[in-house]
Amino acid sequence: MGLIYTKHALGRLKQRQVSQEKANLVYSTPDTIKAGKKANTQEYSRRFGQKTITLVVGKGQQGENLIISAWIDPPEYGTKDYYQKKRYQKYQQASGFKKIWLIIKEQFGF
């Protein structure tokens, strides 16, 4: 397949509970491919039911395809991304004073 996973990508797959086999499937049969946010990258995405897995793919020095990062949306329950998204949603719905309190809690690790 000519694919190489960076350490970062492998760590993200594990952290986000996405198997390497599913990532390979996204790469080989994506629903969409679009330009990435960084130069010379592309984002490959594929839906699996209610979830969308996205891979950031770049080119290596010898022209090989590098999987740079990966994520799943919505995040899997219990992952760090899941709790980050919940905190963000709670912050967005909060009043002005509540937002200040949430920021203070986040800064001091409450």
Features:
single chain, 110 residues, alpha+beta, YaeB-like fold, 2 domains, five-stranded mixed sheet, 4 helices, 30% strand
What does this structure look like?
The protein has 110 residues and is an alpha+beta fold. It has 2 domains: 1-73, YaeB-like fold (2-Layer Sandwich); 76-110, no CATH class. 41% of the residues lie in helices and 30% in strands. The protein has helices spanning 7-15, 20-28, 80-93, 96-108, and strands at 3-5, 32-35, 41-48, 51-59, 65-73. A hairpin with a 5-residue loop joins strand 4 (51-59) and strand 5 (65-73). The longest helix has 14 residues, at 80-93.
Q: Which class best fits the helix and strand makeup?
A: alpha+beta
The backbone outline, from C-alpha atoms, is elongated
CATH architecture of the largest domain: 2-Layer Sandwich
Largest sheet: 5 strands, mixed
Taken as a percent bin, the fraction of beta residues is 25-35%
Q: Indicate the mean pLDDT.
A: 91
